[in-house]
Amino acid sequence: APNGLDGNRSECSVIGCGEIEPLFNHRNGSILKVGDLALLNGSKGKVIRASDDESDDIRYVQISADMHNMDPYFMGGFSSPYGPMNVVSVATAIRLENGDLNRELVVSDCGVPLPISYRDNTESKFWDSYGNVWSDNYEVMADLTKCIHCDECAADSNCPMGAHPSTIADVGLCLSCGSCIGNCEGGVFSGSLGRICVDGEIVPVSIRLSSRKKAEELCEILKQRIRDGGWYD
After folding, report:
1. CA angle 190, 195, 199 (to 5 degrees)
2. Of 50, 122, 140, 178, whose CB has the highest number of CB atoms within 10 Å?
3. CB–CB of 150/185 below 8 Å?
4. What is the pLDDT of residues 161-216, one digit of tens each?
5. Residue 140, pLDDT score
6. What Å distances lie between residue 62 and 38, 95, 214, CA to CA?
């Protein structure tokens, strides 16, 4: 969030979409290869580079696509104390060519490892699972009748996407990150963001930097394009 996180394991932020995360399914270069097709922010593109070693601490993929065909709904900028973060959405189609691969892709959120690191150190010292973050609680709910009309809306001023949650004026910008839940004094916003376990301590998630809802919407768009034909042309 723009004001940053409190320390002493009082809260945490989470990034990643769990079981539908393409990079998690990218095992030892067996899934994503140079030349494979992908949707980048709704625009058809191709993989131009991908990590090929499952021992890499950071898996990555680079995709080239026509910016003119991208949908702003799936992209944006996320304000943080350390500078802006680009928000992009990627969907890929995975060919189920053998039984071993099929079994790997059946994994649920509970089986997807979630690396945990401190904000001043990228090294992952603890692990949990995405099952504690994503459990059918993808969206933040709003009840504007609870608004107490503060002189300055803390939910608005601290929204990292600039979505003005107090008026729900820019729904397309909203990532359901949950920042508004903790910043609204009137309790207008609600949602279960999950929690993680760090060395035996339960730490609540106060902000999610990925939108599972938008990720699944992009998956549905890709699935429909494949069914309509022409995706692999």
Report:
1. 160
2. 178
3. yes
4. 988 888 876 778 899 999 999 999 999 999 999 999 888 889 999 999 999 999 99
5. 92
6. 10, 19, 20
36 touches 232 (CB < 8 A): no
CA angle 140, 141, 144 (to 5 degrees): 130
Token pair for 104: 């790997």
**Residue 129 CA: distances (Å) to CA of 28, 89, 160:** 21, 22, 25
pLDDT tens-digit series, residues 104-146: 677 788 888 888 877 666 566 778 899 999 987 889 999 999 9
Instruction: Output the pLDDT for position 28.
Output: 56
Decide: 25 and 31 in contact? Cβ < 8 Å. yes
Count of helices and strands (H, E) across the chain: 4, 13
* Burial of 60 (C-beta count, 10 Å sphere; 0-12/13-18/19+): exposed
In the structure encoding, which two tokens stand for residue 72, read together? 């702003």
Distance spanning both ends of the chain, measured CA to CA: 42
How many CB atoms lie under 10 A from the CB of residue 193?
Answer: 23
Residues 6+ apart with CB under 8 A from 219: 20, 91
| Closest to 179 in 3D by CA, of 203, 161, 195 | 161
Tell me which long-range contacts 172-175 makes (C-beta under 8 A, separation of at least 24). 172/72, 172/73, 173/76, 174/140, 175/76, 175/78, 175/87, 175/208, 175/209, 175/210, 175/211, 175/214
3-class SS at 186?
coil
Tell me the pLDDT of the chain averaged across its residues: 84
